[in-house]
Automatic annotation (TrEMBL):
Xref: Pfam families: Aldedh
SUPFAM superfamilies: ALDH-like
Subunit structure: Homotetramer.
Domain of life according to the entry: Bacteria
Protein name: aldehyde dehydrogenase (NAD(+))
Active site: 264
Gene Ontology terms for molecular function: aldehyde dehydrogenase (NAD+) activity
PANTHER family to which the protein is assigned, alphabetical: ALPHA-AMINOADIPIC SEMIALDEHYDE DEHYDROGENASE
Keywords: NAD, Oxidoreductase
Organism the protein comes from: Corynebacterium riegelii
Length: 509
C-alpha cells in the first residue's frame, strides 16, 4: 500500500494547466459549475463553469462556419497543424500526464503512455495528410475515366470517456483535421482539466500557423450539453466512447437524422490459455491486462478461458502474482494498481462479486477495499474469481479489476465460450501451437475487432485500426484506413471521348 505524501493537488493542477497555457476561467459559459475531483484522494480540486445548451450550439455553429475555409486548405498544410500539435505534446508530455494522473488515477508510466499515444497519432496523421488516396477504375466506355475522390465531411463531434481522457480525442481529432474536418469535443465531466490543457495546446498550434482557431471547439458539461452533438444536423459524424448503454442512446438518435456514428463501447474481453502456452509469458500478459489501470480499460481482460490440464498451475500463479501487486496512490512509483474512479465503480464491483458468488463463483483472491487513509478514495484489490461457466454476471462488463476464470477441454469449446458474450472488442490467445493460433485469427475464431497471439488484450498500437464488433459498436479509430470514416466518397466519371455512350450499352435518342 502506498503512503505518498499529501501535496496541494490544486496547486499541482494549476501549475500543469499554466504550463500548457490553459485558462480554466476562459471556459465559463453560463452553465452550472462543475467541481473536478481526484480519485487519488477523493478531494475536490477545481471548480469550472460549464456550457449551456445554447453556448454548445453556438460552438457547433462556429465550427460549422470555420469548416468552409478549412476544407479548402491543402491537406499537407492541414497536416502542419497536427505536426505542431504533436511537437507541443512532446514538450508538455509531463504536464499533461500530471493532469491525467490527477483525474484518472493512473500511474505516471501509464499517464505518460497515454500522452505518447497522442504524439504517435499526430505523427501518423501528418503522414496520412499526403495519402488521402482515391482509386482509378477501368471504365467500360471508350474515352472515359472512372475514379473516386475523398472530401471532408464537416463537423466531427467527439464524446470521450474518463478512462482515456485525452488519447481517444487525439485519435479522432488528428485524423479529422488532416481530412479537412472541424471538431467539437465533449470530454468526460470527470476529466475536464486534462481536456482544457489538451485544447489549449491544440489552439496554440493553430494560432502559431495562422489558421482560424474556431476549427476546434471544447464543450464542458454533462450529458444534457453533450446531447447537442447527437441532435444537431450540422454534426454529420459523432464519435462516442463509453458504455453500451450510452451507445444504444447515441446510435439511434444520430441515425434518425441520417448522421454517422463511430461507436467504441463495452469490451468484456477474454484470453484463451492452451496446453502449449508459455506459462510465464501468459502469466505476465494476463496479469497486466486484467489488473492494469485498476481494470478500467476498455481492453481490460475480464475473462480467462484456460485448458483444464494447465488450469491449476496457471491460475495458481496468477493468484500468487495478484498477492504481490502494490495498491495505492500512483504518485508513488512503486505502486502498480491505483484507484477506481469513484464510489459508483466500487459499488459496481462489489455487486458483481456478490452476484458471482450467488451464481456459483469462488473468489480466489482480492475484491476487498484497501484503506489508504482517504475516506472518499476507492482502492481495491484486483480479484480473480473461478466460475462454473459463463453465467449471467460473466456476460456483463463490470468496469473494475475482476478476472473470471473458466476451464475448457476442447479448442472448439474455448472458442464457443470466447465468442459467447454480446461484446466483441479485444481478444487474446496464449499458445505455441501454430494451428491453434491461425484458427483463432480465422473467420471461425475470435469474433472481436482485435485478436492477439501471445500478448494480452490491452496495449493497442496506433498503426492498427482500433474498435470492435457486436455490442462494442463496430467503429474503427486510429490507424490503418480509419481516416475514411471522417470523409465522404465521390465516384467521378470524366468523358473525354467527344461522344456520349451510355453505360451497359443503353441506347437513348
Amino acid at each position: 500500500m502506498s503512503t505518498a505524501t499529501n501535496t496541494d493537488l490544486k496547486q499541482i493542477a494549476l501549475d500543469a494547466l499554466a504550463a500548457c497555457g490553459a485558462d480554466i476561467n476562459a471556459h465559463k459559459a453560463g452553465g452550472k459549475e462543475l467541481t473536478t475531483r481526484t480519485p487519488l484522494t477523493g478531494e475536490s480540486v477545481l471548480t469550472i463553469g460549464s456550457d449551456t445548451r445554447e453556448s454548445a450550439e453556438e460552438k457547433v455553429g462556429k465550427a460549422h462556419a470555420a469548416f468552409t475555409a478549412w476544407r479548402e486548405i491543402p491537406a499537407p498544410k492541414r497536416g502542419d497543424v497536427v505536426r505542431r500539435w504533436g511537437e507541443l505534446l512532446v514538450e508538455h508530455k509531463r504536464d499533461l500526464a500530471v493532469l491525467v494522473q490527477l483525474e484518472a488515477g493512473k500511474s505516471m508510466s501509464e499517464a505518460e503512455g497515454e500522452v505518447q499515444e497522442m504524439i504517435d497519432i499526430c505523427q501518423f496523421a501528418v503522414g496520412q495528410s499526403r495519402m488521402l488516396y482515391g482509386k482509378t477504375m477501368p471504365s467500360e466506355r471508350p474515352g472515359h475515366r472512372l475514379m473516386e475522390t475523398w472530401h471532408p465531411i464537416g463537423v466531427v463531434g467527439v464524446i470521450s470517456a474518463f478512462n482515456f481522457p485525452v488519447a481517444v480525442y487525439s485519435w479522432n481529432t488528428a485524423l479529422a483535421l488532416v481530412c479537412g474536418d472541424t471538431v467539437v469535443w465533449k470530454p468526460s465531466e470527470l476529466c475536464l482539466l486534462s481536456a482544457i490543457a489538451t485544447d489549449a495546446l491544440l489552439r496554440r498550434a493553430i494560432d502559431e500557423l495562422g489558421y482560424d482557431s474556431n476549427i476546434v471547439q471544447l464543450i464542458v458539461g454533462d450529458r444534457t450539453v453533450g446531447s447537442v452533438l447527437v441532435e444537431d444536423p450540422r454534426v454529420p459524424l459523432v464519435s462516442a466512447t463509453g458504455s453500451t448503454r450510452m451507445g444504444r442512446e447515441v446510435g439511434p438518435q444520430v441515425a434518425q437524422r441520417f448522421g454517422r456514428s463511430l461507436l467504441e463501447l463495452g469490451g468484456n474481453n477474454a484470453g484463451i490459455a492452451t496446453p502449449s502456452a508459455d506459462i510465464d509469458l501468459a502469466l505476465r500478459g494476463i496479469v497486466f491486462a486484467a489488473a492494469g489501470t485498476a481494470g478500467q480499460r476498455c481492453t481490460t481482460m475480464r475473462r480467462l478461458i484456460v485448458h483444464e490440464d494447465i488450469s491449476d498451475d496457471l491460475v495458481g500463479k496468477i493468484v500468487e502474482a495478484y498477492k504481490t501487486l502494490t495498491i495505492g496512490d500512483p504518485r508513488d512509483e512503486s505502486v502498480l494498481v491505483g484507484p477506481l474512479i469513484n464510489k459508483a465503480s466500487f459499488d459496481g464491483m462489489q455487486d458483481a462479486l456478490k452476484r458471482a458468488k450467488e451464481q456459483g463463483g469462488e473468489i480466489l483472491v482480492g475484491g476487498n477495499r484497501v484503506d489508504v487513509g482517504h475516506e472518499d478514495a476507492y482502492y481495491v484489490e484486483p480479484a480473480v474469481v473461478r466460475m462454473p461457466g459463463q453465467t449471467e454476471v460473466v456476460m456483463d462488463e463490470t468496469f473494475a479489476p475482476i478476472l473470471y476464470v473458466m476451464t475448457y477441454s476442447t479448442f472448439e469449446e474455448a472458442i464457443e465460450l470466447h465468442n459467447g458474450v454480446p461484446q466483441g472488442l479485444s481478444s487474446a490467445i496464449f499458445t505455441q501451437d501454430q494451428a491453434e493460433a491461425e484458427k483463432f485469427l480465422s473467420a471461425s475464431g475470435s469474433d472481436c475487432g482485435i485478436a492477439n497471439v501471445n500478448i494480452g488484450t490491452s496495449g493497442a498500437e496506433i498503426g492498427g485500426a482500433f474498435g470492435g464488433e457486436k455490442e462494442t459498436g463496430g467503429g474503427r479509430e486510429s490507424g490503418s484506413d480509419s481516416w475514411k470514416v471522417y470523409m465522404r466518397r465521390a465516384t467521378n466519371t470524366v468523358n473525354y471521348s467527344g461522344e456520349l455512350p451510355l453505360a451497359q450499352g443503353v441506347k437513348f435518342l
